[in-house]
Write a structure and sequence with these properties.
Number of strands: 10
Strand order of the largest sheet: 4-9-8-7-6
CATH architecture: Beta Complex
Order of helices and strands: EEEHEEEEEEE
Strand content: 35-45%
Shape: globular
Amino acid sequence: MSVEGSCHCGAVHYRLELAPTDVNDCQCDHCQKRGVLWSYYHPDQVVVTGNTSTYLWGERRIAFHFCPNCGCSTHWSRAKPGSARMGVNVRLLPREALAGATIRQSPGPK
């Protein structure tokens, strides 16, 4: 069953083919400061509409996308095209979409 999420102001939306079952509460300082929860998908499973701005962090391998109006982090993608993985901020989904998900914490970089 597909689920939909959006940033606070509604300028950026995404639709996932499947509700998340596994969610990562990343412990790196960037993710903690943004307050995101990530679920990972193949880019073919996610449709993002609206314009985003990007921030390239660290070694500049990941492009973090966010709404230029309200600042909500929506997703990340690999900076080099063709990757088979992306992360979606599932905090932007309705709460009931996370009801069956397992939330785990990954250690951040040291």
